Recover the amino acids of this structure.
């Protein structure tokens, strides 16, 4: 038996298979690192947009993928915009990934008042944000409090404001923590759709 295994390992067919496997692994690593990555939604913080168990794809190249082992990023197709659903490293524990919607951009003053989001004292009328009710919870969103978003940072909220651990509690997401833009739900089949 051992002799047959040794013969198989030395055969041209095994070498071809091994070469194909190496190429596939390299392509997988390149795609996962710089292009797209799959994520599964573990909580209901983004209901109704995303439900528990939804599996989605996140575009890493949209905002510019981070180059491993450096602080540099590749050029992206777009800067993060208000209303985007993005995946990022949780600022309190960078070993965890979070997903939320961007509501405040660097340099803006954000306030939650009567369930609405205000940026620089003007109510945000983007339908992805304005159709939801936001609660005054956490140290960064107490009633009557206005928060200045630092440059190169974002204020992010879950669509399910009653049950979301978001910027209201722990503050801002630095652009250095961005992973990518969530763009499509691919599983389960009855939930396949673009993320808006």
């Amino acid at each position: 038996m051992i002799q047959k295994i040794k013969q198989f390992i030395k055969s041209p067919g095994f070498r071809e298979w091994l070469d194909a496997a190496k190429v596939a692994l390299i392509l997988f690593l390149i795609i996962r690192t710089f292009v797209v990555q799959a994520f599964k939604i573990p909580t209901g913080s983004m209901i109704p947009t995303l439900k528990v168990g939804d599996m989605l794809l996140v575009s890493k190249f949209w905002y510019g993928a981070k180059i491993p082992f450096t602080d540099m990023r590749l050029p992206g197709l777009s800067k993060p915009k208000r209303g985007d659903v993005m995946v990022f490293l949780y600022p309190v524990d960078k070993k965890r990934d979070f997903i939320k919607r961007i509501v405040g951009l660097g340099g803006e003053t954000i306030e939650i008042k009567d369930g609405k989001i205000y940026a620089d004292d003007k109510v945000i009328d983007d339908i992805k944000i304005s159709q939801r009710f936001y609660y005054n919870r956490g140290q960064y969103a107490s009633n009557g409090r206005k928060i200045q978003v630092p440059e190169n940072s974002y204020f992010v909220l879950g669509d399910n404001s009653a049950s979301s651990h978001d910027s209201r509690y722990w503050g801002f997401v630095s652009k250095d923590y961005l992973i990518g833009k969530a763009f499509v739900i691919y599983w389960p089949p009855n939930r396949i759709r673009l993320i808006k």
Notes: DSSP finds four helices and twelve strands in the chain. Helices lie at 2-10, 12-34, 127-130, 167-170. The first helix runs from residue 2 to 10. The two ends are 57 Å apart (CA to CA).
